[in-house]
Prior knowledge:
The chain is α/β, with parallel strands linked by helices. The chain has 13 helices and ten strands. Mean pLDDT is about 75; it is low at about 15-45 and about 115.
Amino acid sequence: MLRRATGAELRLQLQTIQSCSKSTATREKLPPGPGLADFVSDDPPVDWKDYQGKLKREKGETERLRLPPWLKTTIPMGPNFSKLKEQLRTLNLSTVCEEAKCPNIGECWGGGKHGTATATIMLMGDTCTRGCRFCSVKTARAPPPLDPNEPKNTAKAISDWGLNYVVLTSVDRDDMSDGGSKHIAETVKEIKRQNDSILIECLVPDFRGNVECVRTIALSGLDVFAHNIETVEDLTPFVRDMRAGYKQTLKVLKTAKEIKPDLITKSSIMLGLGETDEEVEKTMRDLREVGVDCVTLGQYMQPTKRHLKVIEYVTPEKFKAWETKGSEMGFLYTASGPLVRSSYKAGEFFIGNILKNRKNQST
């Protein structure tokens, strides 16, 4: 059972974050969060049960938890990694892999055991209008204007990679009347124009619940509509930006399904922020009730000292139990593990097979 983080603890963390963000001088003095080296391990695999560190912080403790061995991965390297990084810079494209400091970047960019490099393209720049307390993406009230060439550049990059499944995500653009939905839809259409066999998943913002924006995305030609609920309902006000509501997320996912019933919908939950097992299960049930087909559960990792601290490192066995629970609830696919992220290579492979089977049955 995970220890419940009290409202007072989360409020204290939030006050600390806000205090830090008010002073540039203070920010410059703060040490960064876990970097690449924290996830790199050249040691041989060990039984995690031999780990002597603490897995959760007790009430009132301020020290960070030591990173457990199952969260360490290999250093990103190799020709695929270097080639992909160079091409992204040349085309002025951003990736959530880099901006969110994803620990799977080595496997995905390096090609992994299948030798196919993948990356999650982050549309509409690298600056978000929201300030969620778990996310390391840059924030501003008025980010730079959109790059009109981004849809074509994205399609070109994806075409050159020779992918059969691609994930597009984006920052929130509350400064735009349509939240950037038309820009995302145009990118999807451009990719399909170049290769209509490519399967496209879009991990999109909530567009403040605007039904027409959701409709624009749902009918753009994408194959998977993803929007993350992120955490349990009671923790949402402390974890997400105040404009991102738990019920609003459920509404967006439900609306997408209503607009296009055969569209696969997907969401993601972070664990380790102080949620209880009962709350996690309720969140999963809430997602199923609005028709969500696929769910991912992964470990929250504190990106910098200005962000929320990890309350607990959830064990691999616990993640496996949530995977079993997801199957029992009727999700088409449940990816649950410490290093699982909403854009997860193994999950994309499985969902891709679901889509292909559906297409084969309809022909």
